[in-house]
Amino acid sequence: MSNSITSVTTGIPSVPSPATPAGPSSAQEDGGFFTSLTSAIERVEQVHTDAQQQISDLLQGNRQDVHNVMIAVEKADVAFQLMMQVRNKIVNAYQEIERLQF
Question: How far apart are CA 102 and CA 99, in angstroms?
């Protein structure tokens, strides 16, 4: 049972703890916002690809564990929904910056 829970959390991007400093030096060390965003998108894409592969294996008869396939599909769905919410926040922030008057 613990393996199922662990596998569900591996594809979801991690959120840094509040104790981690978020200053300019930490952003420069890890490559910045663009690198982090690209990495998160690649992880979501990998989770989606894994789910597609498991579905394909199930349909071809190579798998018998429907529950693990459903977990992979739900994990991909949650990761995609999270990515879309982050995208929406980025678009909203951009639009707010556009409205600012200097």
Answer: 10
pLDDT confidence of residue 30: 58
Place of tokens 């910045």: 32
SS (HEC) of the chain: CHHHHHHHHHCCCCCCCCCCCCCHHHHHHCCHHHHHHHHHHHHHHHHHHHHHHHHHHHHHCCCCCHHHHHHHHHHHHHHHHHHHHHHHHHHHHHHHHHHCCC
pTM of the model: 0.64
* Residue length of the chain: 102
